Amino acid sequence: LLTSSQIRLLSTETRQAIDKAVSTSPVVLFMKGTPETPQCGFSRASIQILGMQGVDPEKFTAFNVLEDNELRQGIKEYSEWPTIPQLYVHKEFVGGCDILMSMHQDGSLAQMLEEKGVLVAAE
Asked: The Glutaredoxin domain covers which part of the protein (predicted)?
C-alpha cells in the first residue's frame, strides 16, 4: 500500500508541458537520448522500428527525457506507464518498446500508422 507521500502527483505545469509536447507532431517519442544518438537499447530499437515502418520525419518529434528530470518522471505518471521510451500517435499513448516490437511483428503497427496517415507518402 502506497502512502500519499510516496505518490508524487504530476504538477499542473508538467502535465501542461507534456500535453503540449504530445501535440507537437502526429508522432511523438519520449526517449533516452536523440534519434541520432539513442542512450539506451530500447530507445534505439524504437527509433529503428519507426524508421523501418517509414514514419515521415516531417510528422515526427522526439523528446530526450535525459535533459529534463521533471519530464522523465512526469511522462511515466502522465501515461501511467513505468518505462521509457514511450510512443504517442495523434496524442494517444501507443506503448513502450516491447509493445512497439510486438505490434511491428504482428503487422498491427504498420496498419495503425497507415490509418493515422503518418507514413512517408508512396511515390
From this structure: 27-94
pTM of the model: 0.91
Query: What pLDDT does residue 5 have?
Result: 47
For helices 12-22 and 69-79, angle between their N-to-C axes, nearest 10 degrees: 80
Q: Distance (Å, rounded) from C-alpha 97 to C-alpha 29?
A: 11
85 CB-contact burial (10 Å; exposed 0-12 / middle 13-18 / buried 19+) = buried
Helices (H) and strands (E) in the chain, counts: 5, 4
Residues tagged in the binding site annotation for [2Fe-2S] cluster:
40
Q: Point out the annotated binding site.
A: 40
Output the nine-digit C-alpha cell for 86.
Answer: 514511450
CA distance 44 to 41: 5
